[in-house]
Design goal:
6-stranded antiparallel β-sheet, Glutamine Phosphoribosylpyrophosphate, subunit 1, domain 1, 3 domains, Rossmann fold
């Protein structure tokens, strides 16, 4: 896993500006701690930071193909291709000869053979850039589900790109700016494809190819969700899900460095760990797994919003059931408000946090501890979006409503927008923005002729999650893991599995009246009964009163700083009312605490990145 960056300028000789691409590439050092490379030609410069996972001695990048002394193409690539062995064999049959064992070379030679259609043949997570010297064109491509990030910033004579915004912002022609459109993206959890909070900066959409040449920019979708009839009965559906998931895990445990799994004691991560353990034990090795908990969390745990049960007892049931090699990582909640830690988290994201702040901080600490033992981890991320695991899939007011489902329970479409000054809120018109974003997403949903209205509606909800909400989850996992040089793979995001489950009728998906019915049935024989019957509980959020006390102190300090650059954006009176309410031993309303975290996150972003706010 790696970080990529680049600059295309048809009006400049970039050989004289090598220092710029080197600076852009250095910003991604945490994503690729093992090696660095830069390649510069007259009009294009590519940078790469490497985290070596496959073919440790080979696969150096940027990777170049030449014809004598003439450059044909150059690749800078981030990701893992799980079917690279099969593709390599196919390319060898077509006459290609390989100098390395890396999947990187398979991508490059695949492009030389198939052009941009190579993206459609790749099974994996990836974001890459290819400079084709023959046509003087730059190709950017991103994987089917958007597991790996890729941003770009058009210029008058070309484009900048990078795995993270920080790489682009390191260029002298890219200024950190936000405007009304950017603030709307921050304060409404719509996650519109291709848009970002930075004015002028865009994100390559999952399953999209963008080509830049002297004629400008062209876009093409090489993969998207499609609707088709589901022909299998329930027993065959359960069997097929088990086959597809097992096949995905089998491909994704291939690694030349230590590999582990992330285990929460929930259905999703337990299923992935059990499958990985079953495969690896055949080779005489026990799967390494890691879980997270907080000091004193178990003793004082209480049902807090979506968090229905404490993870550790279920984790221990699973370990006793399978015998995997497990490590419990216990964090101190008091450290989650450490200013240096929160600055590190912000710098990993380059954006205000869209989800609970303590979750990102604790996830970063968890990954940092895991990285001491492993370089690659498998995660259960995305099963809820694919199989309908969230409670709101089963709530009539959500199903019948016209809001993004993850916002329906809040009573508002805003994500902490009350912390904004009233005049700013009026300028942003967040309600209209939500409605337009929602309508656009629903209109994209593929339709199946003859499908009932009920099934069509559940297909819409599934599509909203897979194309919007899932991006929040995948981005959080990518930024926190890559900030410590840990590669996290997500077997549930296999495109064949996603496509199959997307088309299972809802009545079959929820045949036993519970969430994730088909997945539960497909993995039942792998898991202890306690986990099979467990109600969903998300990644844990601390309930330690010390966390909220420290959070309040930091918000109060921000308000006391009259010269803070974010002050004109904030609703001071509302925030003061929040601070005046008594803390409730860490159990205050979830959304009130999230509002305080939002104040700190936006304030830190505006100050640390010197963001120009253009209203």
């Amino acid at each position: 896993m790696c970080g990529i960056a680049g600059w295309l300028s048809f009006s400049s000789d970039l050989r004289e500006r090598r220092g710029v691409i080197e600076a852009m590439t250095r910003t991604l050092a945490q994503r690729g701690p093992d090696a660095s490379g830069v390649w510069v030609d007259r009009h294009v410069a590519l940078g790469h930071r490497r985290l070596a996972v496959i073919d440790l001695s080979g696969g150096a990048q940027p990777m170049i193909e030449t014809d004598g002394e003439r450059t044909v193409a150059c690749l800078s690539y981030n990701g893992e291709i799980y079917n690279f062995v099969e593709l390599r064999a196919e390319l060898e049959r077509k006459g290609h000869r390989f100098a390395t064992r890396s999947d990187t070379e398979v991508v490059l030679r695949g492009y030389l053979e198939w052009g941009d259609a190579v993206a459609e043949r790749l099974n994996g997570m990836f974001a890459f850039a290819i400079w084709d010297a023959r046509s003087e064109s730059l190709l950017l491509a991103r994987d089917f589900m958007g597991i790996k990030p890729l941003y770009y910033y058009p210029l008058g004579d070309g484009v900048l790109f990078g795995s993270e915004p920080k790489a682009i912002l390191a260029h002298p022609d890219a200024r950190a700016r936000t405007d009304r459109a950017g603030l709307r993206e921050i304060f409404v959890l719509a996650r519109n494809p291709e848009r970002t909070p930075y004015a002028g900066m865009h994100e390559v959409r999952p399953g999209q190819i963008i080509r830049f040449d002297r004629d400008g920019l062209r876009k093409r979708r090489f993969w998207k969700l499609e609707a088709h009839a589901h022909e299998d009965d329930l027993p065959r559906t359960v069997e097929r899900v088990a086959e597809l998931l097992g096949d995905s895990v089998r491909r994704q445990i291939v690694s030349d460095v230590p590999l582990c799994t992330l285990l929460s004691g929930g259905l999703d991560s337990s299923a992935i760990t059990a499958l990985a353990h079953r495969i690896t034990t055949r080779d005489g090795a026990a799967t390494r797994s890691f879980s997270v908990d907080f000091v004193s969390h178990g003793a004082g745990f209480a049902d807090s919003g979506p968090h229905k049960s404490h993870d550790t007892p279920f984790v221990r049931d699973f370990v006793a059931h399978t015998g995997c090699n497990h490590t419990e990582i216990v964090l101190d909640s008091r450290e989650l408000n450490d200013e240096a830690l929160n600055r590190t988290v912000l710098q990993a994201c380059d954006l205000p946090l869209n989800l609970s702040g303590d979750m990102c901080s604790s996830l970063y600490q968890l990954f940092r501890a895991i990285r001491r033992e492993s370089t690659v981890a498998l995660s259960g991320e995305s099963a809820d979006e694919i199989f309908g695991g969230y409670a709101w899939f089963h709530q009539p007011h959500v199903v019948d409503g016209r809001k993004f489902p993850w916002l329906a329970g809040t009573g508002t479409v805003f994500n902490g927008a009350e912390v904004l000054d009233r005049e700013v809120r009026e300028q942003l018109d967040l309600g209209a923005f939500h409605d337009d974003s929602y309508a656009e997403a629903v209109a994209e949903t593929p339709r199946l002729d003859g499908e009932s209205a009920a099934d069509a509606r559940m297909r819409e909800l599934s599509y909203l999650h897979l194309t919007r909400f899932l991006q929040f989850m995948l981005d959080r996992k990518d930024r926190m893991s890559m900030a410590v040089g840990l590669e996290v793979r997500v077997p549930f995001c296999d495109p064949a599995l996603v496509d199959y489950v997307f088309n299972i009728p809802w009545a079959m998906k929820s045949f036993d009246g519970r969430e994730k019915s088909v997945l539960r049935a497909a993995t039942r024989d792998l898991l202890p009964a306690s986990i099979v019957e467990r109600t969903k509980s998300p990644y844990p959020s601390t309930q330690d009163p010390a966390y909220e006390q420290a959070l309040r102190a930091r918000v109060a300090a921000l308000l006391a700083d009259g010269g803070h650059p974010a002050a004109p954006l904030l609703n001071r009176r509302y925030i003061e009312r929040l601070l005046a309410r008594p803390a409730n031993a860490g159990r205050s309303l979830h959304y009130e605490r999230a509002d305080l975290e939002r104040v700190l996150s936006v304030g830190a972003w505006v100050r640390e990145y010197d963001v120009a706010v253009e209203l």
